[in-house]
Amino acid sequence: MPIRREFSPRSLDAAAIQEGRVDQHYVKVLIRLLAAHAMAEKLTALGYQRALATVDNPALAPILEKNFVEEKKHARLIYDVLEEIGMSQQAADRSMVTVLKAPSFDAPSYFAGKASGELDLMMASLSLDTTGLIMIGVNYKDSSYAPHARAAEIILEEEADHEVFASRQLGDAVERFGVEEVNEALRNWIPRAVNFFGPPGTGFTYDCIRYGLKTRDNKELAELYTSMLTRRCDQLGLTMPALTPGYPHTLEKN
Ligand SMILES: [Fe+2]
Ligand SMILES: [Fe+2]
Question: HSE of 93 in the Cβ direction (CA atoms, 13 Å)?
Answer without folding.
Answer: 9
